[in-house]
């Protein structure tokens, strides 16, 4: 029996603009249901992305308490922060003060709901803004599909944008879902704003050089909660295809399983991140901060593996300047090559729009849009 003939399966829809500029829609089977029945459709075969024999490495760990210390521990911690952001494009943080228990519970609770209940958060399948439940980054009818189920919401600014009906995709169940997510975002924003100042200081720039471009009162935070169910063919499927983030900073919480996130090192190839089972959070540099830092800080090229016998959850906060703001490289610090302008000024929403139009065949192809020719 083909998948389309089996009435037990439900489908998401994905809307995309093809190479001819036409709006197209395609159906995507829900991986939670595929996992329960051990189905593996051919559309999930992602050739060339399986890297089982990668090295496992623990990312640099930055102690937020030391960064906030009035004593001598701040300077060496700033040096470690700069090295991590330049060489890895990411780092773990500890002693950050962000409470996680409630948000973990509501994320698990949401994906434990029935399909009928989760479907209330779809929003509109005709929208190409990726807000809502079940939105997938599909750019063609023949691209391999990610083995993932997800919900994306705009968490800040806090006002309701009537034109996009932002709140319509927020779940009503679990009943404390929104309260838990908003509290987590509030605490995360404080950490991210502080890190933007720390990153600037670590490069011998004015500490507000980056954060002022985010315009914190109007800056945007999108939250994406992800569920990766067990996959019957982890040797063929990919949780998320290789990509960099079209954000300033991304804050990632993962739980349920580790050893799925892989990053690409230009010299050693793919590396599997070894994530301590504690309250650490992962921070990674996005394309927009790479542009602001004139290429000194590097956004990371990364992907997510699937696993055959475990499920994994994650929550990502994507922190961006306001969509219509203009960002530009900051020069004049102690970053060595920072004096040569590597990137041009870009409007945030124009960069992000271009990012989602590209189906990258090479690492970080999207950011070439902002490079000085």
Automatic annotation (TrEMBL):
<feature type="domain" description="Fe2OG dioxygenase">
    <location>
        <begin position="219"/>
        <end position="321"/>
    </location>
</feature>
<protein>
    <recommendedName>
        <fullName>Fe2OG dioxygenase domain-containing protein</fullName>
    </recommendedName>
</protein>
<dbReference type="InterPro" id="IPR044861">
    <property type="entry name" value="IPNS-like_FE2OG_OXY"/>
</dbReference>
<comment type="similarity">
    <text>Belongs to the iron/ascorbate-dependent oxidoreductase family.</text>
</comment>
<dbReference type="InterPro" id="IPR050295">
    <property type="entry name" value="Plant_2OG-oxidoreductases"/>
</dbReference>
<dbReference type="InterPro" id="IPR005123">
    <property type="entry name" value="Oxoglu/Fe-dep_dioxygenase_dom"/>
</dbReference>
<keyword id="KW-0560">Oxidoreductase</keyword>
<dbReference type="InterPro" id="IPR027443">
    <property type="entry name" value="IPNS-like_sf"/>
</dbReference>
<dbReference type="Pfam" id="PF14226">
    <property type="entry name" value="DIOX_N"/>
</dbReference>
<keyword id="KW-0408">Iron</keyword>
<keyword id="KW-0479">Metal-binding</keyword>
<dbReference type="GO" id="GO:0016705">
    <property type="term" value="F:oxidoreductase activity, acting on paired donors, with incorporation or reduction of molecular oxygen"/>
</dbReference>
<dbReference type="InterPro" id="IPR026992">
    <property type="entry name" value="DIOX_N"/>
</dbReference>
<dbReference type="Pfam" id="PF03171">
    <property type="entry name" value="2OG-FeII_Oxy"/>
</dbReference>
<dbReference type="GO" id="GO:0046872">
    <property type="term" value="F:metal ion binding"/>
</dbReference>
């Amino acid at each position: 029996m083909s998948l389309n003939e089996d009435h037990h399966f439900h489908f998401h829809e994905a809307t995309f603009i093809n190479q001819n500029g036409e709006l197209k829609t395609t159906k995507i089977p829900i991986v939670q249901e595929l996992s329960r029945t051990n189905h593996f459709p051919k559309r999930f075969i992602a050739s060339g992305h399986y890297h089982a024999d990668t090295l496992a490495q623990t990312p640099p760990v930055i102690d937020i308490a030391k960064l906030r210390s009035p004593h001598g521990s701040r300077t060496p911690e700033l040096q470690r922060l700069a090295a991590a952001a330049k060489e890895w494009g990411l780092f773990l943080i500890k002693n950050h003060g962000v409470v996680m228990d409630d948000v973990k519970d509501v994320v698990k609770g949401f994906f434990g709901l029935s399909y009928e209940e989760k479907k209330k958060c779809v929003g509109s399948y005709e929208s190409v803004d990726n807000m809502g439940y079940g939105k997938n980054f599909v750019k063609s009818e023949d691209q391999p599909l990610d083995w993932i189920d997800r919900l994306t919401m705009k968490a800040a600014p806090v006002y309701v944008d009537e034109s996009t009906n932002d709140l319509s995709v927020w779940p009503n169940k679990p009943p404390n879902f929104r309260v838990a997510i908003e509290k987590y975002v509030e605490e995360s924003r404080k950490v991210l704003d502080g890190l933007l100042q720390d990153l600037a200081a670590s490069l011998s720039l004015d500490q507000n050089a980056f954060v002022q471009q985010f315009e914190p009162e109007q800056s945007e935070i999108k939250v994406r909660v992800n569920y990766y169910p067990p996959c019957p063919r982890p040797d063929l499927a990919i949780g998320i295809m290789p990509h960099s983030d079209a954000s300033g900073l991304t804050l990632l919480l993962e739980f349920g399983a580790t050893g799925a996130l892989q990053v690409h090192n230009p010299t050693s190839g793919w590396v599997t991140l070894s994530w301590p089972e504690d309250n650490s959070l992962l921070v990674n540099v996005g394309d927009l901060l790479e542009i602001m830092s004139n290429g000194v800080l590097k956004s990371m090229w990364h992907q997510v593996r699937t696993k055959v016998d475990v499920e994994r959850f994650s929550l990502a906060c994507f922190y961006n300047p306001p969509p219509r703001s203009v960002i530009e490289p900051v020069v004049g610090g102690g970053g060595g090559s920072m004096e040569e302008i590597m990137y041009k000024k870009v409007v945030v929403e124009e960069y992000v729009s271009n990012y989602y139009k590209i189906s990258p065949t090479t690492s970080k192809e999207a950011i070439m849009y902002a490079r000085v020719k």
